[in-house]
Amino acid sequence: MSRRYDSRTTIFSPEGRLYQVEYAMEAIGNAGSAIGILSKDGVVLIGEKKVTSKLLQTSTSAEKMYKIDDHVACAVAGIMSDANILINTARVQAQRYTFMYQEPMPVEQLVQSLCDTKQGYTQFGGLRPFGVSFLFAGWDKNFGFQLYMSDPSGNYGGWKAAAIGANNQAAQSILKQDYKDDGTREEAVQLALKVLSKTMDSTSLTSEKLELSEVYLTPSGTVKYHVHSPDSLSKLLVKHGVTQPAAESS
């Protein structure tokens, strides 16, 4: 049945579905997973880097985590080239707002403006939806720390803990069981590592396969976005007991 209705994003099927948009969401299901967890003193984002080949030069810059403004960052799952376009759009919008009003852009307003762009690509003929999902982590004076998830349809929602990408259903069910409302940032990091270690396709967690970042307030009250270095990640993995010794090559 779907074959007759999935040639364009602008055609509804008789059941009221937009197949092209659903297929875009399926594409994200094969991407490296990302998890976001909200805590009382910050937001934690963690992402799985998929190493496709041993010959590939590992990127020194972040692959899954991007800073949008001083107070907002995001984790990405899906087609990276699509993500780069949207991240650049978000950065420009955040700077325009700051230039115009002399204060940081409220997090939800930034997410909403980006989702408006995504929605446009599901409604006009000849355009393909962006094959990317985002987790936005940020802080503003109105609502404090916030975590939002958005998908190719242009929908977004505020979450306490969310997972996107491969095995997101399994990750979401573990988060549902183990998430605590008043947890600290350290507990959120521990939970994020635990969830990723259980849902990742590869057997052992190592710092090369992970990216971890946090958004929190410094004692002086400024918002800080911090990406953990590989050394710091290795120590955290050992500390929380989720790392497994690499199998000895015979």
Automatic annotation (TrEMBL):
Subcellular location: Cytoplasm; Nucleus
Record's keyword terms, sorted: Cytoplasm, Nucleus, Proteasome
InterPro entries reported in the protein's UniProt record: Ntn_hydrolases_N (IPR029055), Proteasome_alpha (IPR050115), Proteasome_alpha-type (IPR023332), Proteasome_asu_N (IPR000426), Proteasome_sua/b (IPR001353)
A GO BP annotation: ubiquitin-dependent protein catabolic process
Proteasome alpha-type subunits domain segment(s): 5-27
Gene3D superfamilies, per the entry: Glutamine Phosphoribosylpyrophosphate, subunit 1, domain 1 (3.60.20.10)
Listed GO CC annotations: cytoplasm; nucleus; proteasome core complex, alpha-subunit complex
Cited function: The proteasome is a multicatalytic proteinase complex which is characterized by its ability to cleave peptides with Arg, Phe, Tyr, Leu, and Glu adjacent to the leaving group at neutral or slightly basic pH. The proteasome has an ATP-dependent proteolytic activity.
Subunit relationships: Component of the 20S core complex of the 26S proteasome. The 26S proteasome is composed of a core protease (CP), known as the 20S proteasome, capped at one or both ends by the 19S regulatory particle (RP/PA700). The 20S proteasome core is composed of 28 subunits that are arranged in four stacked rings, resulting in a barrel-shaped structure. The two end rings are each formed by seven alpha subunits, and the two central rings are each formed by seven beta subunits. The catalytic chamber with the active sites is on the inside of the barrel.
PANTHER family for the chain: PROTEASOME SUBUNIT ALPHA/BETA
Listed name of the protein: Proteasome subunit alpha type
Organism this protein belongs to: Microthlaspi erraticum
